[in-house]
Amino acid sequence: MNLDYIEIDSIPIGIYKDGPVGVGISGGADSAVLLYILMSNISEPIHIYNMWSSSRKYSFAKSVDDVIKTCSKLTGNTNYVVHKVQTEPRETNEFFFNMLTDALNKNEVDIVYMAVTNFPPKEVYLEFDQQQEDWHNRFRSDEIVHPLFGLTISGEQDKPLVLGERVYVPLRNYNKKAVVTLYRALGLEKNLLPLTRSCEDDDYRDSHCGKCWWCQERIWAFGYL
After folding, report:
1. Which terminus of the chain is more exposed, N or C, with fewer CB under 10 A?
2. pTM of the model as a whole
């Protein structure tokens, strides 16, 4: 896979320019800044994949829509296609990865970008009020260094979900502090970051709870929600 590398404040990001690309978007800070970078550097079609559970339709769907529209406006890039699927709670992880795999198998895209970051240092995240499930720990553990290409994850009921060589995870060996670096280097902290959502508490539809694992990770990195 041929990538042209750019550096944003010493963080390398590989840019694929030889055909259509896919990117998984959650509405969170990591995938939002990745989408902005892709839209800023790619003229080929960008396929944006999003999936949310029925219990989180309002909050995450709104964040995704706001992020896409803002990234398009800021970059002037309108050459994108949005793919959205709603699923049932607890099925999202498996369906999302299968959605990306299908896009590759159908040659809808040549490569899929995923905005997955590393855990904070272990001494940090073990102090969070809530802890993640085992599959999540294996996927993002700071004790494992993954290559940029190739990714294996265990999903619901420990079913293996394997994404092959055409999956690129540019921030896999960086934690969310690197995401902060990208936002500040690109001048996006005031106009894009506030549109993103990290919170996993369904009771907070228009804000962050500040207590769940994801909120605490965001506070650790940015210093605020």
Report:
1. N
2. 0.88
